[in-house]
Amino acid sequence: MTTWLLEVTDIKQYTYCPRIVFYRYCLPTIRPTTVLMEEGIRQHMEEEDREERRSLRHYQLKEGERFFHLALQSETLGLVARIDLAIATPSRAAVGAEGIVVEYKYSEQKAGAHFKLQLAAYALLLEEAWNIPVKRGFIYSIPLKSAEVVSITPALRKKVLQTIASIRQLVERQEMPDPPVAQGRCVTCEFRRFCNDVV
Ligand code: SF4
Question: Which of 28, 76, 81, 196 has the most CB within a 10 Å radius?
């Protein structure tokens, strides 16, 4: 039985830089927000309104039931999440139904490893909740108005479980992790002023 639940966004952030998750759980008084973050949240909310009017063709589907802001929790996985959009195609009750997870992002870049892992974690949660397979997900780029498909591979599933275990270990040990090798990402990171050993 899991004593506390991680959020799926922790998995995404840990993959981007483990220190962000360290700050969250081990130094919780550090909570910076930036103009970029606030703009991202605003765009996210506007996109959710538009999504309700958008057709399913962005997700290569002809029919499906959409569930917005779906809250899921799994004691087995030790995870909690709110999924931007979950789709059941052709419907949840249909024989052979398939689940699909969608995440919006405020970026024109291709989905990085951290976004793919986030989708895979959503997929595991949705499979457990709906008891139907989730073989793919989509990252929807708000500025590009297009969706990138991500296959939920066995390797991604395994990586989700490994990352959950690594995060729990990090929190238990309370040791600040090293910065990422690719420190270019530190330039726009909201935690930069707390990391004195990066560029
Ligand atoms: S500034 Fe760099 S090392 Fe520090 S939390 Fe951000 S990405 Fe990680």
Answer: 81
